[in-house]
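Lecture notes, unit on binding sites. The following record was shown on slide 14. It pairs a sequence with adenosine-5'-triphosphate.
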Amino acid sequence: MRHPKAAGPTHETLPVEGGARRSPPSDFIRALIAEDNATGKHGGRVATRFPPEPNGYLHIGHAKAICLNFGIAREHDGGTCNLRFDDTNPSSEDIKYAEAIQQDVRWLGFDWEDRLYFASDYFERLYEYAEQLIREGKAYVDSLSETEIREYRGTVTEPGKASPYRSRTVEENLDLFRRMRAGEFEDGAHVLRAKIDMSAANMLMRDPLLYRIRHAHHYRTGDHWCIYPMYDFAHCLSDAIEGITHSLCSLEFKDNRDLYDWVLEALHVDPRPEQTEFARLNLEYTVLSKRHLRKLVDEGLVEGWDDPRMPTIAGLRRRGVTPSAIRRFCDLIGVARVDSRVDIEKLEYCIRDDLNQQAPRVMCVLRPLRLVIVNYPEGQTEMLDAPYYPHDVPKEGSRQVPFSRELYIERDDFREDPPRKFFRLSPGREVRLRYAYYVTCVDVVKDPATGEVTEVHCTYDPATKGGDSPDGRKVKGTLHWVSRNAALPATVRLYDRLFGVANPDELVQAGELAKALNPQSLVTLTDSMIEPSVAADPPGTQYQFERQGYFVSDATESSPSAVVFNRTVELRDTWSKQQTDDRQPKVRRPQRAEQGAKSANLGDRTAEGSSGVSSKTSDPAAAGRAQRYVAELGLPEADAAVVAREEAVASLFEAAVSVSGNPRHVANWVVNDVLRETKGRPIGEAPFTGAELGALVKLVDQGSVSRNGAKLVFAEMARMGGDPASIAERLGLDTPTDTGSLEPIIDKLLAENQDKVAAFREGRTGLLGFFVGQVMKASEGKADPKVVKERVGAKLADTR
Ligand code: ATP
Ligand code: MG
């Protein structure tokens, strides 16, 4: 849930399709539909459906199918997407799943309007179609056993052989089929089969089953039926009944397409829907199969379908992931024809990037250590103003944070014997307390038994109120803190990846599900302390805990006194750092964009990462290159060493510089993005060239693409290659920085908010933030806030 103070578009509202911005088609399915529309194939209609089976909860793989089907419908005038429950199998389906699925699709931001359908509603019609097949001699009742049917089917190398019942007459078949329906036979006594070709190369075409007997209770039709249609019979006909034009499904149904077409042809269906397959989403460090997810739930390996570690939509929601982050992720990974496993960092990137825009910053001390300010008056509490969005121009809002003599700081933020480059608190060291004062450690109190530090004593400098020293004295570390007497005790659940291996499928298929799990996927801290401002927020509110990550208050916690937070994602990717530390040079990474510009003064966690390990090299050629990059291109030494270390990386770098003209920025990209993305693989195998990287850097430097947008463009380049400008355009990430497109938005806004314009002129200059925020919103967040601010400022001055 969004914080009440959060600005910007809500994620329940989807951006309005620009239409004009949507060309050319961004994937092969959209290209195919564009072609169909051009040739008038389906009369120019676009009708899709999302057909879940209500036998489990939706997961992020389904989200891909949802975004694709509903997304395509939205992109076309008059396009529709139905939600259809594919509920033809009575044994595993349940109304509770059907309800949860509807909730999830809606939460993702999609709407089926009045088109909610159930395949079970078509049972009567499907039955009639089956009789029609029998009457036309295209289906027969077979009385072989299940095992015999399998044996008769043959193998990939050998043709099958005909069942002795294949030659039953139409009358015989009709009679038997009607008696099957009437409940005269036991389960398995007979089946209805299509009469196609027992030697077809496609095994699915060797007289596939159409109906089977199941004396089972169906969650919607009750005991009305005891025969149920098979997927291959029901699905194509349900599509036809609903007038679907494009039936999109994942690749495992490729072979079923022949049968899909056969059934429709055999029944003379016109017009006919058409099936197209796309790659299933597979995601690193997780499994995306309802069967395996159910196993996790049933075996108690997770706490339920909505456990925040689950890749289910319900789990992601409870973890604090926003629908817009999921949609963005689906957009980013695109739609391909070939299966692949998607890097989980892409998902985490989309989550961070989205929350960065909307989550207010608050302070929470996860593992508290008591800090006493010995020269601060006892019993005094002062309220300090702290902005919710310290780094972000368009967003405003702040809260009062109580400050007093006794505080808590993070246990990790104090070291009695600090290692080199530890810039946080230690004896004799001065640091900044965020939004408060400079404090200097003067003493520590220890537990006599264990020697553990239990209290840190400091003095504070009253002249540094607000966090700056009037004499220009600098400190290297800034710590978050809470006031001991006002902070709220909190339970914090630190979630991590559910599986410990990137590709758990093999272990899982081998029945070793538990072995594949990450034993650290949940660490619960029960004595965290959080600032009191959060008490007023409803459950499900999202925050950035300064320096810690993004968190959400748990919406399922009912007790009013329980303050429970779930970690959505860390601020940066410490996981890949752990994994690649041995392979990758450790250098000081500039802070990631999502931490905001100010975070540079928020301590030294990244700096510490570089301690001890030299990025120098013993290779003389590399050393020579590094020297040249420092001397001639002005690179910082650490960057130069990394970029120069391998010849292939160096030549990519040089090619990029020759296009972008900005060596420092290119080096930055190489160090932070390129090497991360290629993760120790030969850089020559990357699908992008140095020139393309240079072109991307140039786009950012020109302001044509925001830095965050560029990250997504880069992710795409690293995935598929391609020209950054076209990718940016395709993903809609190119910023409308030209005043031409901003001007009308600004004019309209000022005209609609004359009262605020007047107030601004009367001196309420803080309203600038409101105007900038509104323009950002109108541009769907694509405009460059700096340019917007400048243009809005000029306009407001203009009309003065
Ligand atoms: P699972 O294999 O997890 O049990 P399913 O395919 O049986 O999934 P359905 O409810 O039948 O689940 O799926 C509904 C739709 O979602 C289908 O059209 C299917 O192609 C699509 N879908 C399911 N999983 C994925 C995935 N991982 N990536 C993309 N689409 C998917
Ligand atoms: Mg299925």
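Take-home: Residues 51-53, 61-62, 64-65, 86, 249-250, 280-281, 288-291 surround adenosine-5'-triphosphate (ligand 1) (CB under 6 Å).
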